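Worked example 2:
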Amino acid sequence: MLMSFSCTGTNEKTVTNNDLTFGDFVDFEKLDSAEMTNNSGRFKLSNKQIEKLKDELSEMAYARNFSAKVGAISITLLIDGKKNYISSATHGDYIEVHRSMVTQNISLLETSDWLYFKTGEVNFDNYKKENE
């Protein structure tokens, strides 16, 4: 019986170009805080809301070679000490992020500066200000 093992020495998980998600590009474990502006106003997210947001964002499918009009919803994420911005539309089908937010699997990106991800069933207007 012959067995072979290999180690590449990288922390990136193996993904194919067909099933890329936002979580494949951004390490949400390093998310320190989040602030949202939606139809309810501008507010910081509670720890519980941040955990929900991390789960929702990380599963959003990468929309390759796509562009959409966004802007009514904005989310500011503090990840590993750096502010990052996400835009979407009210009841929008996509989010828009700048490629500078990407820290993983960079070689799998298209050349565009702006990236789009499908929101699926996520409605960012459902987020409201909560007390910790």
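Confidence is low (pLDDT under 50) at residues 1-15. Helices lie at 22-25, 47-58.
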